[in-house]
Amino acid sequence: MKVAEELRYLILAIQREGNRLLAAELRPLGVTPSQAEVLRVLRDHGPLTLNALGGLLVCETGNSPSRLVERLVTQGLVQRDTDPDDRRYLALSLTAEGKALSKRIVAAEEVLHNGIEQLVAGQPVDETITTLRALAGAFPAGEALARRRAAEED
Fold it and tell me: Distance between alpha carbon 9 and the CA centroid of its chain, in Å?
């Protein structure tokens, strides 16, 4: 097996298992991993326009997250208001219910993150992250994650 092939399949295996574990943690909260990502991004970076939100999502790169957002608006978790900086746009933000749920999402994510930390304890994680950033940075999902990281560093 070529190194690139094994790397691709290892990333796929980890992503699928991570998504499965996260979905199980989120199921009692009534949200999918993609919906949880929208709520977390709005919690951490909102309010945002639909385009700005789309630029920070890993789960919906290259597409408008309008259907995903519409479901969350219908559930009463996200609200649309006129953007104070440009009245031509709508700003998306969390409702009180969305804020409360986002706290529970953080706790669910922590369960997964703690499990990952236990699995990689003693491994060269910083070097692995550097390698994965170089690879992911060539793709829209990696660019979205880099924008989130940069926004958090500001």
Answer: 21
Using the 8-state DSSP alphabet, how is residue 28 labeled? G
pTM for the predicted model, two decimal places: 0.90
d(CA 87, CA 11): 42
The answer to whether 92 and 79 are in contact (CB under 8 A) is yes
Going by C-alpha positions, the residue among 29, 106, 33, 42 that lies closest to residue 79 is 42
10-27 pLDDT per residue, tens: 999 999 999 999 999 999
Return the SS3 of 121.
coil
47 prior amide bond cis, ω within 30: yes
pLDDT of residue 63: 62
Distance CA 144, CA 120 (A): 25
**DSSP string spanning 63-104?**
S-THHHHHHHHHTTSEEEEE-SS-TTSEEEEE-HHHHHHHHH
